[in-house]
Amino acid sequence: MSDDLDVTADGPHAYSATLRGRPLRVTVAGSTLAALGLTGVEEPLAVRRTLEAVPAGAELGDEVELAELGALVPAWRELVVARLRS
């Protein structure tokens, strides 16, 4: 885990995060979880694992959907699912 990452729940399917000192809000669409084959219980970990894999210097808005973050990570689906299943 990274010391440069903090994630807390911020409502249903939403998380407040600080990534490398930058605050942002991450939302998770049900369709994103379904596409990953994950359940709601795995949602917070999917957010954390995705944020850990976002490349340094990636341009992020103040609010971003999980799939948008995933688009920044090579082999995102495989990476997140594999890390959650191991």
Point out poorly predicted stretches: none
Number of helices: 4
Share in β-strands: 15-25%
Instruction: Give the spatial strand order of the biggest sheet.
Output: 1-2-3-4
What is the ordering of alpha helices and beta strands? EEEHHEHH
Number of domains: 1
3D architecture notes:
There is one protein chain. This protein is α+β, with helices and mostly antiparallel strands and 86 residues long. The chain has one domain. The protein has 4 helices and 4 strands, in the order βββααβαα. The protein has helices spanning 30-36, 43-53, 66-70, 76-85; strands spanning 5-9, 14-19, 22-27, 63-65. Strands 1-2-3-4 form a 4-stranded mixed beta sheet. β2 and β3 (22-27) form a beta hairpin. α2 crosses α4. It is globular, with a radius of gyration of 12 Å. The mean pLDDT is 92.
Q: What does this entry show, briefly?
A:
By secondary structure, the protein is of the alpha+beta class. It contains 4 helices and 4 strands. The longest helix has 11 residues, at about 45-55.
Give the secondary structure arrangement, pairings included.
Layout: E1 5-9, E2 14-19, E3 22-27, H1 30-36, H2 43-53, E4 63-65, H3 66-70, H4 76-85
Parallel strand pairs: 3-4
Antiparallel strand pairs: 1-2, 2-3
